[in-house]
Amino acid sequence: MATLPSDVAAPADPPSGDVGIAAEAGGFPRPTTRLDRSLAIGFGLVALLLPFLLEALGAGYYLSLASRIVIYAIAATSLNLVLGYAGLVSFGHAAFVGLGAYATGILVSEGVVGSGWHLLATLAVTGLAALLIGAISLRTRGVYFIMITLAFAQMLFYLANSVKGYGGDEGLNIRARSVLGFGAVAIDLKNPYVLWYVAVGVLGASLLALARFGPSRLGRAVLALRDDDVRAEALGFPTYRLKLVVFVVAGALGGIAGALSVNLQGYVSPNVLHWTQSGTLMVMVILGGVATVWGGLVGAAALLLLQEVLSAYTEHWEFWTGWVLLAVVLFARQGLVGLLGSAGRSAAAAPR
Amino acid sequence: MNRAAVPPPLLDIRGLEKRFGGLLATDRVDLQIRAGEVHALIGPNGAGKTTLIAQLGGQLASDHGRIVFDADDITRLSPHQRARRGLVRSFQVTRLFGSASVLDNVALAVQAVAGHSFAAWRPVRREQALFARAAAVLDDVGLAAKAGSGIAALSHGERRALEVGLALASRPRLVLLDEPMAGLGPDESARMERLIGKVRQSSSVLLVEHDVDAVFRLADRVSVLVGGRLIATGAPTEVRSDPNVIAAYLGDDEAHLGGSGAPEAQRR
User: Fold this and answer.
1) Which of residues 118-137 of B touch A (CB under 8 A)?
2) Residue A163 pLDDT more than 90?
3) B 42-71 residues with CB below 8 A of A?
4) Residue ranges of the domains in chain A?
5) Which of left, alpha, beta for A211 (phi over 0: left; psi -120 to 50: alpha)?
6) Contact A245 B118 (CB under 8 A)
7) With pLDDT > 70 as the criterion, what percentage of chain A qualifies?
8) Is there a contact between B117 and A218 if contact means CB atoms under 8 Å apart?
9) Beta-carbon separation of B135 and A16 below 8 A
10) Is B84 within 8 Å of chain A by CB?
11) Closest approach of chain A CAs to the CA of B8, in angstroms?
12) Residue A251, SS3?
């Protein structure tokens, strides 16, 4: 089900030069590290066994929380592609998650449930929206880029609020769920276990793709333009097209997260499009680790679990998560994944 | 002067203009760079040298005029399209990929023009040819020993060498070097001068440089830009004795002719 990054073959070393030090000091990503492999194994085990474990402990309720974490992790991972790898501070990523949720929710509420075509339609809608928004906003940079992505997302937020036929500001409830049917096989997302395995499958595939992306030609070109896009362009990289590709892929993946979330909750409201949702995804990425394969998952898990635990004690849990974020930003430049990494190679030379 | 006898220039600039508000930074510049030559562009601070380089590199759009490279009009092409045709520039203010190692910096420069960059699955480290070329460039610029270092570990001189190395990595037909010796000590300057001497074996060079002595040693021809206008082009000895150039820029050895930034030329 979940294909794991541990399958990635060990790389041949470059013909000259010891790039190990630079790579460990936050240099360009190498194909896989030991941390990647341990995290992949851990993720695989949790993905496969968690439903049984929770069942055995009589804590089935937590599967829904776990599914929520996985879905947020998909969304955060897609944002990490834009924010972390490409260095584009997109403040409107919730637009794509929300669009995905609405596209699937509307189609399902209209009775288009079976065969999985509505999920392909969702993918097309979010991909196209990302193409359009990206094509315009990627012509700007810096604060203007932040503002224009925010503006697009807020436009969609108000649009969702005003479409009374699909719930308006009260949101849209769906009774049915998506069925991925191809021939005789019908995968019904109404079953929470099925939804879980589909979600971890999507996340696993995304993480594997991201692990392959980083050290690939595309990944390195994208990291180069993050470091200095004027230089990258001057050397021959088609920076605008590269950014657009990343933006569209990330938007479509965000849309898949939205489609899964409406299936999990049976409900979508304009709030998924609100800018605070974009902010939450950004917090997850920064908390987990910018431009790291595992940053989205680790950040989503950390923030949602923290929220779950703290909200049992206090209404003001956001106050306390703020402190955690502050500490991570100040003391762990590559987020929690960076901390895990440096803990895992205590014997090696300290990074700068 | 005898245009008919020379082969068509590699780079042919006609009537190029760039205006910033009320300032005409590039004022009807005509300039031809021949294949195989080292052509120096000198002029006082604020003469518009870097603006002209940015127009040739494509970072700045020109308001008027044409840029023809190797018989193709490239006036409207983006920087990456120009680079892929073999017209690559370096920068006066060093621009490197700060999170990549020295070797990876050069490997990126090689990758930028070698094949497309949309392959997302195969690790680049398997591409031996790319890293072999990158290692050769590091040898050329004297940074082979630093291949694995991060950019932060490099001295200013080493960064300037890498800056030029990035521009050379793709074996451009014409390389625009924007003050490669800026801020270098005497030893480092001498090394850079040797490097440029080596570059000319494979590329034509348009060299913007303040160190006039180095310019006159390296260049086949020299053009002088003052206030956005080319006031002279010719062999170093001709330009050196051109009364307009002396008045506007070079001065005689002692006198600083005041006003337009002439002392810069005497900087060591």
Assistant:
1) 118-126, 128, 131-132, 135
2) no
3) 57-59
4) 31-344
5) alpha
6) yes
7) 88
8) yes
9) yes
10) yes
11) 25
12) helix
In the CATH hierarchy, which fold is given to the domain comprising A31-344?
ABC transporter involved in vitamin B12 uptake, BtuC (1.10.3470)
For the entire predicted model, the pTM comes to 0.88
Which residues in chain B are closer than 8 Å to A12, comparing Cβ atoms? Answer: 125-126
pLDDT of residue B219: 95
Residue whose entry in the numeric block shows the structure tokens 């499958």: A201
Give residue-wise pLDDT tens across range A222-267.
999 999 999 999 999 999 999 999 999 999 999 999 999 999 999 9
Cα dihedral A95→A97→A102→A104 (10° resolution):
150
Distance between CA B257 and CA B263 in Å, rounded? 8
* A308 HSE (CA, 13 A, CB side): 13
Helix count and strand count (H, E) for chain A = 14, 4
Q: Which chain A residues are closer than 8 Å to B125 by Cβ?
A: 11-14, 30-31, 215
Q: DSSP labels for B129-149?
A: HHHHHHHHHHHHHT-GGGTTS
First to last CA, chain A: 39
- Alpha-carbon distance of B184 to B141, in angstroms, equals 14
Query: Does the domain made of B7-97+171-266 have the CATH classification 3.40.50.300?
Result: yes
Q: Which residue has the tokens 């503002």?
A: A147
Which of these, B250, B247, B241, lies nearest to B210 by C-alpha position?
A: B250
Distance from CA of A334 to the nearest CA of B (A): 13
